[in-house]
Amino acid sequence: MPDKSAQEKTEPATPRKRQEARKDGKVAKSQELSSVIILLFSIGAMYFVMPGSVERISDFAKWLIANASEHAVTHANFLLYFKQAMITFVMAVGPIVLVLSVVGIVANVLQVGILFSAKPLEPKYDKIDPIKGAAKLFSVQALFNLVKDIVKIALIFVVGYYAIVSEIKHSSMISALDAPHMLGFIGAAMFRVAIKCSLVLIVLAAIDYGFQKYQYEKDLRMTKQEVKDEMKNTEGNPQIKSRVRQLQREAAFSRMMADVPKADVVVTNPTHIAVALSYDVEKMDAPTVVAMGQRLIAERIKEIASEHDIPIVENKPLARTLFKACEVGMQIPASLFRAVAEVLAYVYKLKGQA
Asked: Rounded to two decimals, what is the model's pTM?
């Protein structure tokens, strides 16, 4: 019977799973957050740019009315007026459109970074499957969106109502204003109402972003078996890796044992440690460790040394120091030169060498 806990998605997504999801276009993104950022910048752009835009359009209208009676209605004159109207419109509205375009791109980049993926555009049967489509209608995401939209409409209605009522209370003097100042007063009032409603949208956008982040992490969760399978695919099967390491150790051991006959002396502990040293005056700057080991390996080093008539010298302090300070293939440190030189001198004396 399969382990139920192994099939439950309880593990956080691995970096590889996140990377694959990102390639498929699956990212944590709140459309509400992007919309409210665009809305705030559009309100600000209109507040600062609109007076100049209105003045530009007004000047064009005055110029058009003043010159209409002087020019006959011809094809050439119509094209002239149309061209001037388009230029005026672009100059008046262009800055606002440009700001909103840049803000829209930046708002999305801040959430998901720079991402280009064609996967969401690929035709899939799941997208037209009526059963899965019906399931999405009753999903947690759909329920959250429904509640969010209801709360958003209700809050905007309430906040907007009280904001408008507050502005109406201060509108008693509007009748005494001339047309330009009246338009300015109305524009400022609309700006304040829009800002108050936007504050509600900011709170809702923050909640929506938090939910989308939570839902994204939840959807990416993996089972314990999926994590194990991914580790096998990316790092290799642990059993195979263990076998490879074992083979590498065996190969290294064989090479080390093959170098023991080249040693000049084996320094022992006497039973626990054995260190085989080799020294060639013409080729080496200092004696070199060709093999060393503990217990069974030490016994094997001594057996090979005995088979090849290599002297075995018992020196407990030196054997322990060499074993701790050196590695196979490494020259002995300068601090051990004197102690090793005494051992080699003793060995050379046994062999009758100078």
From this structure: 0.48
